[in-house]
Amino acid sequence: MFKGVKFDIYFSIIFIINFKMDPLNKEQLNNPENPLYIHALTRTDSKHIEAKLLKAKTKKLNCDLKLVGTVDDILQHLKAGPAKNLVNYFITYKTNKCDYCGAHKSKAIQLDRAHCNKDGCDRASLLRTAIEKYYIDERTPILIKNILREFIRLHSGIPLFILCKPCHRIYDKK
Question: E strands within the chain?
């Protein structure tokens, strides 16, 4: 059967045909007046994020571990693991379908949290901003918990879409 990208493209075409939709339109999805954009903002409500930060018991947000290095070194260290996992923990969703195409979550169809792809809204940019807030030089240690807490706070007011893998791949393409 289909594997990888071919499989995703196949399902994207099937969804578009079945739902009589236009292919994913990034400009439409990134339009602040679009109902999908407005709904995606509800997932990053600042009151919800702050309340969850106050109650957080995860070690990453409470330990006194420090990092040293360049901004890029720290970014690469935190980007894939700790930062991604925190987004999954803090920004929950109560849907079983793709925001864009409506594909329902199943064993074959996974749903992803997709950062808005406007400039400065992607995970790496938000993390870089958080690091730069505390960064002095490559020899001065920075508390990981400060970076990660700021990273989560920076999500406030930025839409986070729930997309199936095919829609997420299309959306993330530059």
Answer: 66-67, 111-115, 142-143, 160-164
